[in-house]
Specification:
It is found in: Cytoplasm. This protein has helices at 4-17, 21-32, 37-43, 50-83, 103-116, 131-134, 174-183, 223-238, 296-301, 318-326, 339-342, and strands at 121-123, 128-130, 166-168, 188-197, 208-218, 244-251, 254-263, 272-273, 276-277, 285-294, 310-317. With 345 residues, the chain is α+β, with helices and mostly antiparallel strands. The termini are far apart. The structure holds adenosine-5'-[phenylalaninyl-phosphate] (FA5). The site of adenosine-5'-[phenylalaninyl-phosphate] (FA5) has 22 residues, from strand 5, strand 10, strand 11 and helix 10.
Length: 345
């Protein structure tokens, strides 16, 4: 009598070991085809003694059903292997990290919006400029200490006969002369945001940083307009109730010149928290940057008559205002690429 058990074992082994869909389809024909092993077993029933026919028939039919199952299972395995995909719909979905704007880009957008609301136009002037733009046009003589190569990075290329050497701009004030010449005549309301470069590296200085430069030139512009604009910016950017104060200072391109401070939001401008000195400001005030009334020589150099128009300008560091807003203590973190720091904002 044909050994059905032996054929079952052999078929199972061959199907499991089949290495491709082609091999499997040959096995399907070998076992389930018209002249296949199963049909051979079924036609052999005539040679089986009558009393065994029923059991024999049941065993062959069971083998046939198992065969279909083995072939189907192996087919799915081989198909998944072929497409390289194993899809288990019971697994939880993947969560991908969400991207966001860098803290500096976000601040640039915020600051731009604050000034655009009061009619300032956002511009962006070169990060690499001639000495003329960075110094000369700003009333800074050749022997000014800021023009020393310890303070400013010069580009190693031949100097322009009139405009001097090329520099990585140490401040955004190079936009003042360009904007006066671009607009032609007052009124001018510029907000120039750009990268600046100075050879410094510590908790509050990076070699590359950003400044935003305000310039306003019109008839009868005074310090009162300047103070009003600074107060407006302080309240909008740092929060309602933030105050500003001006301290006398010196810049070649403004006269009079000031340093601007804002009241510290950590201690409410008192410098004291629960009978202790405020750790953020120590005095109730935080330094924002430089400002002043545009020097008549700078207006003249930009083609504007200082007897008919006046103006003010300021230049503040973006990294520093972010630091002040969020109470951060090391701006080097901004550029560390450390996602744990950056994703907090
Ligand atoms: C200036 O750069 C003047 N051009 C500002 C100005 C413009 C005055 C218009 C008057 C009229 P100062 O060197 O102080 O000023 O720099 C301004 C601000 O830039 C600083 O208060 C600080 O916030 C930021 N800053 C300067 N150097 C760095 C640096 N290495 N890293 C980060 N921020 C810096």
């Amino acid at each position: 009598m044909v050994d059905v058990g032996q054929i079952t074992k052999l078929a199972e082994k061959e199907i499991k070991r089949s290495v491709s869909l082609d091999v499997l389809s040959k096995l399907e024909i070998k076992y389930l085809g018209r002249n296949g092993e199963i049909n051979k077993l079924l036609s052999a029933i005539k040679n089986i003694p009558d009393e065994q026919k029923k059991t024999y028939g049941q065993r062959v039919n069971k083998l046939k059903a198992s065969m279909y199952r083995y072939i189907e299972t192996r087919k799915k395995e081989l198909q998944n292997k072929k497409s390289g995909v194993f899809f288990d719909k019971t697994l939880p979905g993947k969560t991908y990290p969400k991207g966001s704007l860098h803290i500096v880009s976000f601040a640039i957008e915020e600051i731009t919006k604050v000034f655009e609301k009061i009619g300032f136009i956002r511009v962006s002037y070169p990060e690499v400029d001639w000495e003329y733009g960075a110094f000369e046009s700003l009333n800074m003589p050749v022997n000014h200490p800021a023009r020393d190569d310890v303070e400013t990075s010069f580009i190693d290329m031949p100097a322009h006969p009139k405009l001097g050497k090329m520099v990585l701009t140490p401040h955004t004030s190079n936009g003042q002369n360009r904007e006066m010449k671009r607009v032609g005549k007052p009124p001018i309301r510029m907000i120039n945001i750009s990268k600046c470069y100075r050879p410094n590296w510590d908790a509050t200085h990076t070699p590359m940083f950003h400044q935003f430069e305000g310039l306003c030139v019109d008839k009868d512009i005074s310090i009162v307009n300047l103070k009003g604009t600074l107060d407006y910016f302080a309240e909008k950017y740092f929060g309602v109730g933030t105050k500003t104060r001006l301290r006398p200072h010196h810049f070649q391109f403004t006269e009079p010149s000031f340093e601007v401070d804002i009241s510290c939001n950590n201690c409410g401008g008192t410098g004291i928290i629960k009978a202790n000195r405020c750790k953020v400001c120590k005095s109730g005030w935080l330094e924002l940057g430089g400002t002043g009334m545009v020097h008549p020589n700078v207006l003249r150099e930009g083609g504007i008559d200082p007897s008919a128009s006046s103006g003010w300008a300021f230049g503040f560091g973006i990294e520093r205002v972010i630091m002040m807003k969020y109470g951060l203590d090391d701006i080097r973190n901004y550029y560390s690429g450390d996602i744990r720091f950056l994703e907090q904002f």
